[in-house]
């Protein structure tokens, strides 16, 4: 029959908005160090605009949403 191929997929999610805002300045600085092409406008975190910002980063960096969440959570 079928082999036992257990695949574990880690789901990276950003923490709640309050926690993200608290750490965002530090994370933003690290992202700018890692990706010199990012500007302050690319990393502008406005209330209720997290998805819009993440969409811009996906396009600019060529990463999936999951890759971005993982990368930011590991900063």
Order of helices and strands: HHH
Number of helices: 3
Uncertain parts: 1-18
Main beta sheet: none
What Rg is obtained from the alpha carbons, in whole angstroms? 15 Å
Shape annotation: globular
Helix content: 40-55%
Indicate the mean pLDDT.
75
Number of domains: 1
Compute the number of strand runs: 0
Summarize the structure.
With 75 residues, this protein is mostly helical.
Structure in words:
This protein is mostly helical. The protein has one domain (about 15-75). It contains 3 helices and no strands. The chain has helices spanning about 15-35, 50-60, 65-75. It is globular and about 20 Å long. The model is unreliable at about 1-20 (pLDDT under 50).
What is this structure's SSE topology?
Blueprint: H1 17-34, H2 50-61, H3 65-73
């Amino acid at each position: 029959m079928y082999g036992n191929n257990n695949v574990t997929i880690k789901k990276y999610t950003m923490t709640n908005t309050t926690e993200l805002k608290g750490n965002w300045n530090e994370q933003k600085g690290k992202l700018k160090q890692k990706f010199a092409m990012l500007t302050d406008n690319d990393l502008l975190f406005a209330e209720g605009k997290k998805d819009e910002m993440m969409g811009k980063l996906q396009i600019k960096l060529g990463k999936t949403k999951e890759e971005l969440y993982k990368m930011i959570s590991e900063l």
